[in-house]
Specification:
The protein is α/β, with parallel strands linked by helices. It contains nine helices and nine strands. A hairpin with a 2-residue loop joins strand 2 and strand 3. InterPro entries: Cytidylyl_trans, Nucleotide-diphossugar_trans.
Length: 254
């Protein structure tokens, strides 16, 4: 008699490194007494459907401070190629015996664990199974980005991707092939708030950092488990804050 299906092991991997052309060392900038990466890890650990949080950084000496931070927090850290991020990412997932992988990036300290849980609920319940699903940034501010994928799809990309673009950005090999992989997206919670527009809640520039710092300092003292909608409420009360990074142009994926 066959027993119940074993729950897949879900590993969330955040990519982080000190190198950044527009804001070097951004993931370790301090707000409210903690580096931004610590704020992100604290939030990722609250995602109830995630079994393990891992930081994937490069093996360059410049990224030693990230590895040191991980040791202090007791969070797993995997180090690999700086340029071949797909190789680093897949090896980190293999080292953690992942069945399902969530991908986020270390410059998103406002990442919402509830959204990640909703994404995983969608991914894990899909029938037929999905290979990849993402938070649709057309409906959510940039900085809440997350992708879920099967290890089968990730390993196919790892073994077969040849284009530098597909090695650097991890998942394009998957989502550019809808004829081969089953793709999904997390729909908005109710009607998408019109005023969100193209808001940026990630940290890629000084202007981005000014906005994220204000949100963290406003929300953390009274509500350390704030959600993305709490951020939205703050920005409704302070519409001028949105102007801080309104003119920042997102770097294209090239």
């Amino acid at each position: 008699m066959t027993g119940p299906a074993q729950k897949p092991r879900v590993v969330c991997i955040t990519q982080a490194r000190m190198g950044s052309t527009r804001l070097p060392g951004k993931v370790l900038l301090t707000v409210a007494g903690k580096p931004l990466l610590t704020h992100q890890i604290d939030r990722l650990r609250r995602a109830t459907r995630v079994d393990e949080v891992v930081v994937a950084t490069s093996d360059r000496a410049a990224d030693d401070p990230i590895a040191e931070l991980c040791r202090g927090l007791g969070v797993a850290c995997f180090r690999g190629s700086e340029q071949d991020v797909l190789d680093r990412f897949c090896r980190a997932a293999l080292a953690q015996r992942a069945d399902v992988v969530v991908r986020v990036t270390g410059d998103c300290p406002l990442i919402d664990p509830g959204l990640i849980d909703r994404l995983l609920a969608l991914f894990l319940a899909a029938d037929p199974p999905l290979d990849h699903a993402a938070v649709d940034i057309g409906h959510y501010p940039r900085g809440l980005d997350a992708e879920a994928m099967s290890m089968t799809a990730l390993q196919a990309a790892w073994q077969e991707a040849r284009e530098p673009f597909e090695r650097e950005h991890v998942t394009p090999f998957i989502y550019r092939r809808p004829d081969r992989f089953r793709l999904g997206a997390l729909p908005p919670e109710g009607p998408a708030p019109v005023e969100m527009g193209m808001q940026r809640w990630c940290v890629d520039t000084v202007e981005d950092f000014q906005l994220v710092r204000r949100l963290l300092e406003e929300l953390l003292p009274a509500n350390p488990h704030f959600t993305w909608t709490d951020c939205l409420d703050v920005l409704r009360r302070h519409p001028d804050w949105v102007l801080l990074n309104r003119d920042v142009v997102q770097k294209p994926l090239v």
